[in-house]
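Hi all, long-time lurker, first post. I run a small reading group and we've been trying to get comfortable going from sequence to structure in the token notation. Rather than ask abstract questions, I figured I'd post a concrete chain and ask someone more experienced to write out its structure so we can walk through it together at our next meeting. Sequence below, copied exactly:
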Amino acid sequence: MYTPGSAQPRLNRPVHERYPQIRATSGYGDPRIRHTGPGPGAGSEQEPERSSKLTARLTLAITVVIGQLWGLTVVVNEWMRGNTGTAWWGAGFLCLSFLVVLGLWLLDPKDR
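-- Answer (accepted) --
Happy to help. Here is the structure in token form:
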């Protein structure tokens, strides 16, 4: 049973009355549809070497981000305890890990 949900009367009709061109078989039984999408093999990797390189970079980047978050937590905790010397060493570690990632990013500029 259809229950109206809009304040506009023109919208308070069942879907099949609002859109008569849409039939129950639209999509799979519609003779106007010739192609259902990409053919076999669509979406499969065409360059496995590039895929493995990008996967390795992504793994490294995720590892560095997790390490930086951990390091930031340690630095903030030490700073709040008043151990500013340890906090500065930790901040240096964070800067160094950022520079390592930047260097790895600059290593292969043609693959971007």
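A couple of things your group might point at:
The first helix runs from residue 15 to 18.
The radius of gyration is 29 Å.
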